[in-house]
Specification:
Elements (H helix, E strand, L loop, with lengths): L1 E3 L2 H14 L3 E6 L5 H13 L2 E6 L9 H6 L4 H8 L5 E3 L3 H4 L18 H4 L3 H16 L3 E5 L3 H13 L5 E5 L19 H7 L1 H9 L7 H13 L4 E10 L15 E9 L2 E8 L2
The chain binds adenosine monophosphate.
The site of adenosine monophosphate (AMP) has 17 residues, from helix 2 and strand 5.
Length: about 280
């Protein structure tokens, strides 16, 4: 495993890899790595000759300064966890990544007008900026993204299409704790009590797929009512959307692919998760 911290070093390492031939898989992350990230890296390793991982807490995608400051940073442990799964790790500083100022403006149309878009102004433009730069530098055949960030995958697919990037975007399933809680770097900020209670999020989502109704309004009301019963949880949104367009639907029969996406505060920590209805 080769650790590089500058764009020039990364480009040199990639030039050698591309010259050697064989496919390249890429997993972009913000670090504080867990089994969810590892599942992406293992898939990349299985499907490609070479694997590259980036570890970078990207400031331009944070709309909340406190969230950025409190985001866990565990580089030493991260490197140990992934050493057998990657060929190159890119762990740059913010100064290095933004030597060229972050002036790019992307338009993701209706995809960014729902869910995380209005809740986190500027977030998806920041995601677009970093993902495009990383894909330009790494030039992977495939890039792996987790379905935990369901909307992000749609945004990245749109970015790749708009910018004529040749990499294939590969969505990967959500990895959960035995309790059902989706693994997330932000879980490190939960107290034991909050973590136990946060497991209710997935329980409630699962139960919502078994209701005897197809009316979205009823399903949303059920989720809101059940979340409100857990003292430390505060619902920000629960959207049930067409899994392709991400636009809200009124009835589960209105689309071929239907996903419910939730954002919840567990104490001070904002968590997201999702579940498929169809
Ligand atoms: P992050 O470090 O949170 O930016 O995540 C980096 C990548 O790992 C993103 O594509 C995430 O969707 C993915 N990821 C994060 N948590 C999980 C999880 N529990 N299961 C699968 N993928 C995940």
């Amino acid at each position: 495993m080769q650790l590089v911290t500058t764009i020039e070093e990364l480009k040199n390492a990639m030039a050698q890899i591309h010259a050697a031939g064989g496919s390249v898989g890429f997993v972009p992350t913000m670090g504080a790595l867990h089994e969810g990230h590892l599942s992406l890296l293992k898939r990349s390793r299985n499907e490609n000759k070479f694997s590259v991982c980036s570890i970078f807490v990207n400031p331009t995608q944070f709309n909340n300064q406190e969230d950025l400051v409190k985001y866990p940073r565990t580089l030493e442990a991260d490197l140990q966890l992934i050493e057998n799964y990657v060929d190159v790790v890119f762990a740059p500083s913010a100064e290095e990544v933004y030597r060229e100022p972050a002036t790019e403006q992307y338009d993701f149309g209706d995809l960014e007008k729902v869910m995380e878009g209005p809740s986190r102004p500027g977030h998806f433009n920041g995601v677009g900026i970093i993902v495009r730069r990383l894909l330009d530098w790494v030039q992977p055949d495939r890039a792996y993204f987790g379905e935990k960030d369901f909307q992000q995958i749609a945004i990245v697919k749109s970015l790749v299409h708009q910018c004529h990037i040749q990499s294939e975007i590969v969505p990967c399933p959500i990895v959960r704790e035995p309790s059902g809680l989706a693994l997330s770097s932000r879980n490190k900020r939960l107290s034991e009590d909050e973590r136990a209670k946060a497991a209710n999020i997935y329980r409630i989502l699962r139960e919502s797929t078994e209701l005897n109704t197809t009316r979205v309004e009823d399903i949303q009301a059920f989720v809101a009512k059940e979340i409100a019963k857990v003292d430390i949880l505060k619902l920000e949104y629960y959207a049930i959307v067409d899994g392709e367009t991400l636009q809200p639907i009124r009835d589960l029969r209105d689309a071929d692919s239907v996903v419910g996406c939730i954002a919840v505060y567990a104490g001070e920590v904002r968590l997201i998760d999702n579940i498929r209805y169809k």
